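fold-stage: in
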Amino acid sequence: MAGDKPISPFWSPGRHIDRRPFLQARGAITGAVRSFFAEQGFVEVETSVLQVSPGNETHLHAPRTEIIRPDGSRATRYLRTSPEFACKKLLAAGEPRIFEFARVFRDRERGDLHLPEFTMLEWYRAGAPYDAIMVDCVAVIARAAQATAIGQFAFRGRTADPFAEPELLTVAGAFERFAGIDLLATISGGEGDRAALAAAAARKVRLSEDDTWADIFSKVLVEHVEPHLGQGRLTILFEYPSPEAALARVKADEPRVAERFEVYACGVELANGFGELTDAEEQRRRFTESMAEKQRRYGETYPLDEDFLAAVAEMPEASGVALGFDRLVMLASGAARIDQVVWTPPVGET
């Protein structure tokens, strides 16, 4: 508004001194996390930011650029939305335990919990079940809290004890408890699934005629389930429905759910983990379907990384997780917004 005092840039001493305690906490947490992985026998890796494909999930959007080859020809590249493709190639190469503090990029994301450029902490264990990665997540979060000596996490009026035993809750159980919906009854792989979920959710969320099963699932999750998660202690939400498997394998004894989990604290999603899919043809099918939906919704699509699909076929059984490191630092340092815990906020947003 006219007459308002302009906001000083982030690098002005007055603003920086207010942010500096959070940035010092970031350094302490980084060291503590590295120590954890060293104790567990992990190798820290650094993978490429520029990728042939940034990922093939419908709602993820990546900045696009070009490289110019020595002969002057041009090739499209993308800034990665995750280091996942590169890390899985290293699993195929024979690395048994790896982790990375990865700079990643996502278009269409900005807010108290979102940045267009941020740090993702990602790690993988070859030959391990996905509940081993759940245990890792709890330990990493506790190490972060220990590094800052914070007693509890707090965000928007909610609190969580990072040292308490976490709540384990299936997605189906959460939908039943918080929304009164029998989620698994709407998953058969048939054409009636969307109608079944729409009928169950009709009085709980606002629906549109073009909502897919996934859209309705997401609305219920965001509006009725997530606000209750990570209250008082961490929540591990697991056994995601198979239509939301992404890069996770479907459970052998229950094909309606996948080996996927997410970790929440104070209603904030911190981590997203998988028992990794190693069926390359199934992965190709999922990617192809996701890109068709992306084209329908957004008028764009990303190529498939054929080198990645070849690596999936050679991968050992493995489990892995992506943890939003900036969000973890925010909660463990007591910051109110994610941009308080990054050394330089996004370009043009000072």
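fold-stage: in (second)
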Amino acid sequence: MTDSFVTAIDSHAHVFTRDLPLTPGRRYAPAYDATLEHYLAMLRSIGMSHGVLIQPSFLGFDNSYLLACLDAYPQQLRGVVMADPVNALSYIDDWHARGVVGIRANLIGAQLPDFTDQHWTALLSRMVALDWHLEMQIDAGRLFQVTPALLASGVRIVIDHFGRFDPALGTSDPGFGYLLLLGQTRRVWVKVSAGYRVSAKPGDPEATFATSATAWSKLLPAFGADRLLWGSDWPHTQFEHVSDPQRALDDLRRLVTDASHRRAVLIDTPTELFHFR
């Protein structure tokens, strides 16, 4: 990989080792290592030059491994950390200098934060000043409960994995309909990634692709290609047996047939959003 020339950006991946301290109350713990070296080799194998590392929820607020990875490859990698809003302002400038570009809120199975709380409002204000984003993994049906406060703050909002609509409802999920309306704000980006997380048949590649294709056909006119991103979701935690990075990228190429749209999703949009300049 080169340090500066962007061939394609993977906007969503995780790195970790089994011996890292795990956060209490986690929903999942890995039984294998997904190291930085493994990740970089994976990127090379599918012809991608840059990546965005997302703090795994099972590591909680201990971002030390992710930060060490950013320190090792400051040109090729960016990071999204998890943070306690009570003390995050003490760390945010150091994080920014080391290549962090956003904060993650993984809200699947979790109580929703009060983004109007004074700690959050102060943190969000600083994030706006740094041109960071707040990345959310959240059930589509609960999205309406948190986005008004976030939009009012002015922060950029990134929604994971096609909006995490209910697999049983598919794109008929009212929460997905609400997500589509957010495209009008131009303050929201969506990752067209990990279709198996919204598929009623995650073990069936063609059924999963069909679900992703339906979602893409609705997201594109609602948001525009300049608000859509692709991520490998490597190493596909909890779905390791149903996908791999090459299949994910091949599916994207089948999904996004317009070359200009594909360039936006893989290069132009993530270059700007994640500060690859």
